[in-house]
Amino acid sequence: MIRWGLIGASTIAREWVIGAIRAAGGEVVSVMSSSAERGEAYAAENGIAKAVTSVDDLVGDPDVDAVYISTTNELHHGQALAAIRAGKHVLCEKPLAMNLNDGCEMVLKACEAGVVLGTNHHLRNAATHRAMREAIAAGRIGRPIATRVFHAVYLPPHLQGWRLDKPEAGGGVILDITVHDADTLRFVLNDDPIEAVAISHSAGMGKEGLEDGVMGVLRFRSGVIAQFHDAFTTKFAETGLEVHGTAGSLIGR
After folding, report:
1. Cβ-contact 199, 205 below 8 angstroms
2. How are beta strands 240-245 and 144-152 bridged, if at all?
3. Are 250 and 132 in contact (CB under 8 A)?
4. pTM over 0.85, yes/no
């Protein structure tokens, strides 16, 4: 049984990850929150034995084998490195870091320490995306030519908070949603992007300096081009992924 510590008393951990850990045969033994009151209440509500207020206390606990990091984006780098130094495996929310150099350092340090470092790109596990990947690999649509991602949603009020009012915390739609598009496309196409162009904007939901919408195009090594639209402000659109090939199209909703 893998014993997990939570770095961040977050909504996503409460709604999804704690249950997934337990369903996989693991257990959550500790949670870290900078607020002792919040941490203790969170632990009680979710059946977690310990609540601590510092990363060092959590990663220094011999009862913790692995950590799940779901704090605000600017904290991921330092918190992951602290866990890696303590010999803990790490599952970190996306984006892994705020910039490429920090992300590469996290990967390098995990390799050196011999621990697993993962990013929570959960959309790879969607049945639709897996079926599309398998169909493309089997040649059922011929050679892929183009793809379209429409991932513009309305961010629920209980998730708005720092995503819309803290530029310094790595808020905004690109680090929240576009990173998922990029990873899902890499997975479905089994290909890597080599070029990107995009225009972002603010439609009034985000604080000045934070984008709440973006459109762009990626070009992949194989020549496939991919169009994407992400937003926090779109109440009435559906979401989906399309892949168009020389012998057919795959359309997921």
Report:
1. no
2. antiparallel
3. yes
4. yes
